[in-house]
Amino acid sequence: MSQDCSTPRALRIETVRGDPISAGDRELIPIVRVVAFGKASATVGAKQVGGQGRGFAWIKPLAVLEVTEDGERRIELEDGTAAAMRGILAAAISIGLACTAIRWAFRWKRRGS
Questions:
Q1: How far apart are CA 53 and CA 41, in angstroms?
Q2: pLDDT tens, 26-78?
Q3: d(Cα 9, Cα 3) in Å, to the nearest integer?
Q4: In this structure, are residues 4 and 45 in contact, taking their beta carbons and an 8 Å threshold?
Q5: What span, in angstroms and rounded, lies between the C-alpha atoms of 70 and 26?
Q6: Which of 61, 68, 82, 87 gets the most CB atoms within 10 Å of its CB?
Q7: Which residues contact 52 (CB under 8 A, 6 or more apart)?
């Protein structure tokens, strides 16, 4: 894969096929989504040399491509971590709303007395 370096991109999102892995009479090819962000700056001048850079990369496994003599089969992968994080977020929001409702009910009762 070649890229043109004259047009830098801060954010890159792409789906990538990994190197094939032989397992018996089949080949397994991982398929991942890569999200990368990077930014850099530099100062160059008379007696001034400096620079800084920052970035991150996130790789999410999507599937495995199984190649046999009979053909190809795509095996989708489930993201258990994302499902768990959604559950934790839903629980946190529910608990927060329940606490707010209880607090509101006690204040309403106190004002009515």
A1: 6
A2: 999 999 999 999 887 777 777 677 778 888 898 889 999 999 999 999 999 98
A3: 10
A4: no
A5: 10
A6: 61
A7: 40, 41, 42
User: How does residue 8 score in pLDDT terms, banded at 50, 70 and 90?
Assistant: low
Is residue 50 within 8 Å of residue 43, measured between CB atoms?
A: yes
Residue that is written with structure tokens 């999200």 in the block: 35
Phi, psi angle pair for 84, to nearest 5°: -65, -40
Range 90-99 contact pairs with CB under 8 angstroms and sequence separation of 24 or more: none
β-strands 21-23, 11-17: how paired? unpaired
Which tokens go with 111?
A: 């004002």
Structure tokens at 43: 């100062």
Nearest CA to 9 among 45, 32, 31, 34?
34
Which residue has tokens 């768990």? 84
Helix or strand run (H / E) with residue 15: strand 11-17
Identify the three-state secondary structure at position 14. strand
16 forms beta bridges with 32
Residue recorded with tokens 């001034």: 48
